[in-house]
Amino acid sequence: MKQTYRVVAGLIALGVLVQAASVAFGWFEVISEVENGQIFDENAEFNLGQLVHLYGGLYAIPVLGLVLLIVSFLAAKTVPQARKWGGIVFGLVVLQVALAIFAFALAPAIGALHGANALLLLGAALRAASLTQVEAPAAGGPAVPRQRSESPSTPSSIPVQ
Q1: Which helix (H) or strand (E) holds 44?
Q2: With left for phi above 0 and alpha for psi between -120 and 50, is residue 80 left, alpha or beta?
Q3: Where are the transmembrane segments (predicted)?
Q4: Is the C or the N end of the chain the one with fewer CB within 10 Å?
Q5: Is pTM, for the whole model, over 0.70?
Q6: Coil, strand or helix: which one is 116?
């Protein structure tokens, strides 16, 4: 489950990057078409970048967020704070979809919050993925990063008393 947790969290982070690239591509394509004399209005069809952003944001990332939340409960014994960060990521995904809907329904300025929340989501997904590099605490003890090697390559020069 630890590896599944890491992979799903990583896929969410990658999905956020794809979302940013696709929305930029989509709108630069619109600007290019308008500069070439085409009309962009409510009758215009979505281009590839806009479609990738739409389906990735409405389907792929929310499904991955839900999967991460479920996996976080299964990986809780081996991944410290798995449920906490799985919940944070899922909550940010839900907020991201809500901000997109509100930006279209209420005020386009809400789109700025949609963009800012995407950065929070990226950071939270990367943090969740990084939790798999830390050993789970034993019997209520603190989480300690995994040691890279069992024995140091050079002896310590500090005398032990």
Answers
A1: none
A2: beta
A3: 50-76, 88-113
A4: C
A5: yes
A6: helix
Q: How many residues does the chain have?
A: 161
Q: Which distant-in-sequence residues (6+ apart) come within 8 Å of 81 by Cβ? A: 131, 143
| Selection from 92, 90, 96 nearest residue 54 by Cα | 96
Cβ-contact 67, 8 below 8 angstroms: yes
Q: Please tell me the distance from the alpha carbon of residue 72 to that of residue 124, in angstroms, as a whole number.
A: 14
Contacts (Cβ under 8 Å, ≥6 apart) of 38: none
Q: How far is CA 39 from the centre of its chain?
A: 35
Residue of 60, 121, 119, 133 lying closest to 88 (CA atoms): 121
What tens digit of pLDDT does each residue of 79-128 get? 999 999 999 999 999 999 999 999 999 999 999 999 999 999 999 999 99
Q: How far apart are CA 41 and CA 84, in angstroms?
A: 43
